[in-house]
Amino acid sequence: MRYDSPMPTLDAPTTFVANAGAHNWGRADKPKPDETKPPDRFAPIPGHNNYRGGAIYSYPQLKMMRDTYGIQTIINLSVDSMKNQKSGEFDCSYTSRRSSLDQNCEPQWAQALGMNYVMVPMTVHWRMTDAKWGLIRDALAEGNAYVHCKAGVDRTGGVVARWRLEIDPNLTPAEVMKYTRKFGGYWTYKPVGCKFPSTKNPNPEI
Fold it and tell me: What is the mean pLDDT of residues 36-65?
């Protein structure tokens, strides 16, 4: 699919914020994220004020993202990104049950801040479909969106790669693959599209 109307920007820088990735949040010997900074691997992506990155740690951090960066929509690709979040004053707790995802902290934070929340889990059991991609695409087309998974690498990388290929007719698969690898992870490309995950990494984050 290609978009007929031009996007506000096609820029996709590869420099990003480093801020205590979510893999270490549950470890007492590791530092916690700086809540005055955006999440780990935070970086702009094409569209109108869109961003990508890793898991959101706390309500104050999400509030800062709204107030400082103008983010109005959260696109969460990863249920496990909500594990070990700092609940603060909210009555929330981590669950991966499909029927109870709104009990997690992040959707409650977004609601309290008046933000839109799009939950599109990507795992070996919850695979991408055209309907799910439509939710992500529409949110990114609207703008002021932050798309994330746990580390901001694999799932986020796949979604942002597809988004870039759809909106930029001059972008080649080789170029988008080079961009995607700048954020980490293991990737290969086949004519049918991105192979997710690469066979080089038998135990990827899912």
Answer: 96
